Amino acid sequence: MNILFVCSRNNWRSPTAESIYKGRQDHQFKSAGTEPSAKIRVSAKDILWADLIFAMEKKHKQRLLDKFPAETEQKEIIILDIEDEYTYMDKELIEMIKLSVDAYL
After folding, report:
1. Number of other CB atoms surrounding residue 39 within 10 Å
2. CA 45 from chain center: how many Å?
3. Which CATH number fits domain 2-100: 3.30.70.420, 3.40.718.10, 3.30.200.20, 3.40.50.2300?
4. Which of 22, 18, 71 is nearest to 43 (CA)?
5. How does pLDDT run across 48-98, given as a tens digit for each residue?
6. CA 80 to mean position of chain CA atoms
7. Coil, strand, or helix at residue 39?
């Protein structure tokens, strides 16, 4: 299964999620951001690649739906409700991501 993590700037939350899971052999993981200033900006190709998408906040899901209506039409996008108040690999952020995501894997 291909899994995409999405946040705003692809600096802290989504790269942390990708780093947590990237060593797994049973799934592929990527991360991207919705903002023009994102390190890796989400693309239509990313959406099409993904079997499952995790958005850190409701606004990220809405941005995906608005910008990529055709690509997201048949996609499951799960909102994790993780605010932008953590740094990369923050212990609490890792716990929140695992608590929310592990059940889907």
Report:
1. 13
2. 14
3. 3.40.50.2300
4. 71
5. 999 999 999 999 999 999 999 999 999 999 999 999 999 999 999 999 999
6. 9
7. coil
